[in-house]
């Protein structure tokens, strides 16, 4: 359940207006580092939560963000 909550939060953050702007670059880098550490520490459960549907949800959130800021 905790990994699912983290997954939902990452998708929510990606959908924030302006997330692709330079002001979020450091935060995004830190989030990437956390993501990698989660993958290495929870390797048995990680792939079942952060699967292909996560990538799809993340891409949708980023596209929605891009559309709403234009």
Terminal residue distance: 35 Å
Instruction: Give the topology string: H per helix, E per strand.
Output: HHHH
Largest sheet: none
SSE class:
mainly alpha
- Large-scale geometry: globular
Give me the count of strands: 0
Strand content: under 5%
Query: Helical amount among residues, as a percent range?
Result: over 70%
Notes on the protein architecture:
With 70 residues, the chain is mainly α. The chain contains 4 helices and no strands. The N and C termini lie far apart (35 Å).
Write the layout of secondary structure elements.
Blueprint: H1 2-14, H2 25-41, H3 43-49, H4 52-69
Helix pairs in contact: 1-4
Which terms summarize this structure?
mainly alpha; globular; 70 residues
Give a concise summary.
The protein is mainly alpha-helical. It has four helices and no strands. Helix 1 (2-14) runs parallel beside helix 4 (52-69).
């Amino acid at each position: 359940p905790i990994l699912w909550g983290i997954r939902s939060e990452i998708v929510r953050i990606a959908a924030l207006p302006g997330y692709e702007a330079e002001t979020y670059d450091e935060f995004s880098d830190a989030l990437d580092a956390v993501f990698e550490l989660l993958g290495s520490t929870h390797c048995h459960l990680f792939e079942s939560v952060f699967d292909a549907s996560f990538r799809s949800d993340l891409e949708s959130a980023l596209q929605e963000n891009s559309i709403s800021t234009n």
